[in-house]
Design brief:
7 helices; 107 residues
Length: 107
């Protein structure tokens, strides 16, 4: 029960935090604790953004998202086609390191 409450607290922090580093760290922790909630957060941030969600995230947060997507694609190759939309959205980034990791994730 305590762990479930902890996961909910981390999810809440990820959703409402304004500091990019804290948001990135809570997202990574959420991914390791509950991948489905991490994916739900990713869907939320991609769908609810009025502008391009890429501009709202720092490159360090974008890289952590790509790391999560790459791990998911390796563990469950059947998910790759479902996750491609997020990878292509991240490829709009102006950061060369993010673009490199997008290409690496697609391959």
């Amino acid at each position: 029960e305590l762990v479930e409450d902890f996961v909910d607290e981390i999810e809440n922090l990820t959703l409402h935090e304004t500091d990019i580093s804290t948001k990135r760290n809570s997202f990574i922790l959420l991914f390791h604790l509950d991948q489905n909630k991490a994916l739900a957060f990713l869907k939320t941030i991609m769908a609810n953004s009025e502008d391009d969600p890429i501009y709202e995230m720092g490159d360090i947060f974008q890289l952590s998202i790509l790391e999560m997507l790459r791990k998911l694609c390796k563990v469950e190759p059947t998910q790759k086609s479902r996750l491609m939309n997020a990878i292509f959205m991240l490829s709009n980034s102006k950061s060369s390191s993010v673009l490199f990791e997008c290409a690496n994730t697609i391959i």
